[in-house]
Amino acid sequence: MRKIENVMYQMNASRGVDPDNIYFVQVDPTKCEACGECEKHCGTGAIQAINEEGIRQVVNPAACMNCGQCLINCPYDAIYEGVSFVDEIFEKLKNPDTVVVSMPAPAVRYGLGECFGYPTGAYVGGKMHAALRKLGFDFIWDNEWTADVTIMEEGTELIQRVKKPSKDKPLPQFTSCCPAWIKFAETFYPDLLPHISTCKSPIAMLGPLSKTYGAHETNIPAQKIYTVSIMPCIAKKYEGMRPEMADSGFQDIDATITTRELGYMIKEAGINFKSLPDQEPDPALGMSTGAATIFSNSGGVMEAALRLAYEVLSGKKLENPDIKVVRTHEGIGTAGIKVPNFGTVKVAVASGLSNAAKLCDEVRAGKSPHHFIEIMACRGGCVNGGGQPLDPDVRTASLFRSIVARVNRKYRMRKVA
Ligand code: SF4
Ligand code: SF4
Fold first, then answer.
1. Class of domain 86-145+202-288
2. What is residue 413's predicted lDDT score, i.e. its pLDDT?
3. Residues of the chain above pLDDT 70, percent
4. What is the pTM of this model?
């Protein structure tokens, strides 16, 4: 069993297994202190006490959305990822017959620095690109490129729905880029699926584009290309393994690692991260705009799509492209954006699956006033994803809370006795 930044991995990823049957998140019962902190952060009840001592476990993979919020909030490092592609990627990087493509998500460049002593949220995109080249990746085809593509697709779809909603494409439109949210909707709100944008997530677009457009641009046969998605997210491992993600004629995404695992790989390879010069991604699938970067924050996808919708619906240039009113860190945020020649576009942004459920119930009851709803499973969005480095400050606060809770519980029990 390998130990990566205090998170253990049980096995290498198996192929041909239905990802719905895989435990992407598991609890080590020898480390679980029965504090229940994980249960508080789980929006589905998938993690529960399995005995009288209160030891927790993910009891059913079908009920687990793989968001990893339990893992990053466990004060005792008792929760770990069940699937890792790290060994396989190291092997592929050594193989001269394989062209290994890295596809880093926007939030990774704001999280990776923590593994190397930078403050939380420090931007290290240039060093990340340099480290990927040092590790031996043949290309960096950046996921920010397809975040921009998503905006064009999802924003255009929103405009069509706002102008002419239909039974197949009703309002409100939900975002589609968070795989934990998509599994949540498929599991608990299947009747709302027509509301979800038909666009794939940015990485689910970049995988097939790498093996089609990227293969064409570089003259490399698609069967030689091995695509590695680098994500702040455990649910993206699930998404990459979904069998329908094969539009290129191959499995579009061959492997997915988290920010934590990329940090581990860089350290394992002996690379001095801090001394690296800043570098750019490769041009074929590497260019991006500022709209792509804000995807990592809760409200960012919404804001980027609204910028496009505003200009198309009003025919006017948006003077101030910052629509920060829709960015939210906790709970549910709502806003009305006045669009000249159209009226008010009503939007809502939710992070956390229990908040998502509230908005879904409203839509199901036919009472939603919104045109567009963004859902992210992780509180604050992907910057706080389940695959990000484990912030020692957060963990300290979490540990403190759990100790206080346990002391209070013991005190209450004594008083009752
Ligand atoms: Fe719950 Fe998410 Fe943990 Fe699964 S990964 S048990 S859904 S918090
Ligand atoms: Fe993954 Fe982001 Fe969704 Fe969290 S919010 S599960 S990090 S896509």
1. alpha beta
2. 42
3. 84
4. 0.89
